[in-house]
Amino acid sequence: MVARRLAVLLGKADLNNVNQILDIGSWHLGQSIEFATIFEHARVDAFEPVPASYELCKSRRDSLDRQRKDRIGIHNIALTNKTGKIPFYAVDPAQSSVPNVGASSMFRFMDGLNGTPFNQNLVQQEIMVQATTLDKWCKDYKIKQVDIMWVDVQGAELLVFKGAEKILKNTRIIMTEVGLKPYYEGHTLKADIDAYLNGLGFKELHDTFELNGFDYEANTIYVNEGVVN
Questions:
Q1: pLDDT by residue (tens digit) across 104-134?
Q2: Between the CA of residue 162 and those of 41, 43, 135, 145, 166, what are the distances in Å?
Q3: pLDDT tens across 14-38, in order?
Q4: Residue 209, domain CATH
Q5: Which of 169, 163, 213 is nearest to 188 (CA)?
Q6: How far apart are CA 104 and CA 126, in angstroms?
C-alpha cells in the first residue's frame, strides 16, 4: 500500500533524503515495515495505543532482519491534542463478527451506525490509554523535522494535527485518511482538516485523493508547498 501511494508522488514531491517517518495509528506495523524497506536509511517511529496491537507490532518488528528492526521504534501511546490518560474505544475481536481491530478509535461508533459501512457488528471496549501531543513527543525525542507522516487514526486526524502545529511547520509530506461522512461520535472531517493544514502551508495534491473503498472516508496526500517540484 505504501509503495502504491508513494508512486503517485513521483514528479510531484521530493522523495530524496527521507530520514524521519512517522506511522501514526499503526495497528499491525505493516506500513512501518514497508517504509523501512523502501527507504533503507530512514528512521520509522510507529504509534499504537491499543495494548494488544502494540504487542503485535513488537512481535512483527522482532521477526525482521536487523537492518530494518533497528530503524523502527514503537510507542504505546495515542497522539492527540492533549496529554495524559484518555478513554479509548478498542474493538474487541472476540465479541465482534469480524475482528477489525483497525477500527479502534478515540471515539465511539455513532448510534445506529455500528460498523458502517463495513456491515460488521463491531463491539468496542472502553480502555484508558496514555496520550500525548506530537509536538511534545518530538521535543522529548529531539525530532526537528519529519519527512513523511502516515496517519490512520479513525476519525481523530484533526486532533493529531492540532497537537502537532510546531512540527508540522517542518514536515514535508502528510499521507492521511480523511473522513467524508461521520460514523464515529466526534469524527473530524476533511473540510476542517483542509482548512487547518492549508493554514500551515500545506497543499493537497488532488490527484492523490482516493475513496477508501466506500464514500465515508478517503486517502489523500498533503505536501508542504516548499517540496512541490
A1: 999 999 887 655 555 568 899 999 999 999 9
A2: 29, 23, 9, 17, 9
A3: 899 999 999 999 999 999 999 999 9
A4: 3.40.50.150
A5: 163
A6: 10
Look up the domain containing 56 and give its range: 2-81+133-227
Torsion of Cα atoms, 63 then 69 then 75 then 76, to 10°: 10
Which element (helix H / strand E) includes 57?
helix 51-62
Query: Which amino acid, residue 63?
Result: S
- pLDDT per residue over 123-164, tens digit each? 999 999 999 999 999 999 999 999 999 999 999 999 999 999
**Is residue 108 a part of any domain in this protein?**
no
Number of folded domains that form the chain: 1
User: How many CB atoms neighbour CB 19 within 10 A?
Assistant: 12
- Residue 103 counted as domain residue: no
CA 50 to chain centre: 14
Instruction: Read off the pTM.
Output: 0.96
**99 in any annotated domain:** no
**Grid cell digits, residue 114:** 455500528
Task: Please tell me the distance from the alpha carbon of residue 186 to that of residue 53, in angstroms, as a whole number.
Answer: 23
Spell out the alpha helix ranges (H) of 70-156.
134-140
